[in-house]
Amino acid sequence: MATEITSVIPDEDGGRRQLRLRRISLRVVEGPDAGAGGDHDADVIRIGARSTSSLVLTDPTVSRDHAEIIRTPDGIVLRDVGSTNGTFVGEVRIREVYLPESREFRVGKTAILFRLLDELVEIVPQEADHFEGMVGASVAMREVFAVLDRVARTGLTVLVGGETGTGKELVSRAVHNHSTRQGGPFVVFDCGSVARGLVESELFGHVKGAFTGAVADRAGVFEQAHGGTLFLDELGELPIELQPTLLRVLEQREVRRLGDRRTIPVDVRVVAATNRDLRRQVQEGRFREDLYYRLAVVELRLPPLRERLEDLPVLVTRILSTAGFPHRVRGLSPEVERLFLAWDWPGNVRELRNVVLRSIPFADGDLIGLEALPEALRTAGEAVPVGSFHAAREQILASFERRYLADVLERCAGDLGRAAREAGVDRKGFARMLRRHGLGDGH
């Protein structure tokens, strides 16, 4: 399974965590290129005479594209890709075979020693409270930064989980910017924002006449991201009938446009993200298990804001400094700080950013006070009772949530999708909150 390839695991004492990277060592032990080779941590390692291969061989009996080594959910696979002179394990010519932890194989007249190398890296929280566009002084976020710094330099596929607004796209950009692909394109595709009938065309492209409205050839996002990174957002929304096609593209590294017979090679690193529980979707038959493990070579969860409230000060400072318009606000009043610490932040950092930016023009002085907040939040803050923290927090949440939902829904003329976007909350979560407070039927 993929967790045997790369994973974040706890120590036996439940303390500091470790990142386990299974690197692949290839060394030429016989042939014109004897002594060549190196260690690899990519998902797919190509072997051949082509100059862009992971292991380039000058042996004239080796094809341009000869063989490849692929990480799969069940282990490491050696696959011949249609070579002229074959790929051999022992005396047996193979098309595809699982490799043990150490094995010699032959391509043409070249013998190669394959070995798996386990590398355990302690996850030590970074000292810096920022990484690319992300900020956070909490241990949880500084651990995320440490993992990203290490994983970005590999070629491994990354699956990012987390609630709406936690910064999954920022993670994908950080992976791209800290990788060897930083000079290539960075392409974003939201699996949930495209009409179901157009998803395949957007992903893989089409040729003129492939369907009504296809007036010209068009490259899909895999081709557009060639040489760079493709960020597949909201992966859990991908129709299940397209999941086998996506799996083939990831494994074979080539796409076929709709209406075309030709295949086009693509060199793309994939970072995928979801706010859904894909493991549960796999169990329920709504997401393919093989695709899940193919994408979750490295699986990273972003903590919600309510689990890292100590990051609020540094987040607010960053939001104020990057507002994009002139202002004199430098922070929050004590009353607003107390209110922010009590709120659950269902929209996470995105929601915090929306609230802070909307409050800046109404601040009386250089601090955002209760009077500057949206009416629903301001009313909740004024209603804080004297008593235990938890009692105050629950009253704030209930009062604020109902007033805020009613206010944003009214501003958006009842348009649920628009209201959810303005609130920084996914549509289904927004609908659930409406039903909980009896504000319409949530549809």
Annotate the secondary structure layout:
Layout: E1 6-10, E2 17-30, E3 37-40, E4 44-48, E5 55-56, E6 67-72, E7 75-80, E8 87-89, E9 92-94, E10 96-98, E11 102-107, E12 110-122, E13 130-131, E14 134-135, H1 139-151, E15 158-161, H2 168-177, E16 186-190, H3 199-204, H4 221-224, E17 229-233, H5 243-252, E18 254-255, E19 264-265, E20 269-274, H6 278-283, H7 289-295, E21 298-301, H8 312-321, E22 331-332, H9 334-342, H10 348-359, E23 367-368, H11 375-382, H12 389-411, H13 416-423, H14 427-436
Parallel strand pairs: 4-5, 15-20, 15-21, 16-17, 17-20, 22-23
Antiparallel strand pairs: 1-2, 2-3, 2-12, 4-6, 6-7, 7-10, 8-9, 8-11, 11-12, 13-14, 18-19
Keywords:
443 residues, alpha/beta, five-stranded mixed sheet, elongated
Could you walk me through the main structural features you see in this protein, from its secondary elements to its overall organization?
This protein is α/β, with parallel strands linked by helices and 443 residues long. 31% of the residues lie in helices and 24% in strands. The chain has 14 helices and 23 strands. It has helices spanning 139-151, 168-177, 199-204, 221-224, 243-252, 278-283, 289-295, 312-321, 334-342, 348-359, 375-382, 389-411, 416-423, 427-436; strands spanning 6-10, 17-30, 37-40, 44-48, 55-56, 67-72, 75-80, 87-89, 92-94, 96-98, 102-107, 110-122, 130-131, 134-135, 158-161, 186-190, 229-233, 254-255, 264-265, 269-274, 298-301, 331-332, 367-368. Strands 1, 2, 3, 8, 9, 11 and 12 form a 7-stranded antiparallel β-sheet that branches. Strand 6 (67-72) and strand 7 form a beta hairpin. Helix 8 crosses helix 10 and helix 11 (375-382) packs antiparallel against helix 12.
